[in-house]
Amino acid sequence: MWLNGKCALVTGSSRGIGRGIALKLAEHGARVAITYVENEAAAWDSLAQVRGHGSDGFVVRVDVSRPDDIGRMLGAVRDEFGRLDILVSNARGELPTFYQPPLELTPERWDCALNTQARAFLSMVQQATDLLPDGGRIVALTYAPGGRLGSWQPWVAMDSAKAALESLCRYFAVALASRSITVNAVSPGFTDGSVLNSLPEAAQSLIKARHEGGWTPAGRLGTPADIGNVVALLCSEQASWVTGQVITADGGGSLMEPGLPLELQRG
Question: How many angstroms separate the Cα of 78 from the Cα of each of 34, 75, 136?
């Protein structure tokens, strides 16, 4: 249990990937602050599962698009934990708040994506630096393909926000390196129990069939626990020499060649 005695904050941890991360940190000994914006019952369920791993924590409501809420959240961390060893930025807005193709994208939906991602991360790290000890860990959840592709048209606002988030990770990694605080991003592939499950049923079925049919060499979608394992590794002492990186966790899906039929790949 390499995180014994550590205190962690995972935004958006009432469900999905955020919950998977919180549970893996708890499994390795960390106390975890669980955040939610709407579903309080789900947040308390996450905390119950954290306690089931022999750890503890607390629940706090926060809208990460509001800097004042971020300050209140970090104040709660100070009151409950007295310190913050691990900061994980995972929260995002619901699909309808940003999901719109570029020729129809409204400034409001653009702002919703940027405010819950890049601006929220900027504010969180700036406000958390006095809580983080030397050797602390910061991890942001991203979607790296969005920074170089453009085919998933309604995802344009979130992809742009995630690209800005990744850039901030690199800049903060340099800014905080003298204190041995690492700053990294984790880019999951398609993951069951995540935003995937908020897409229309037909879209979910197509995506699952494609990845289970071989596009992901592992032959399945990822799980929140898979992503939690990667984040926990980055938070370990052994990962102290990794900073400013985007770590892809997709079961090998990004290794496949989009221009070749699947039948011609993998031998």
Answer: 14, 5, 15
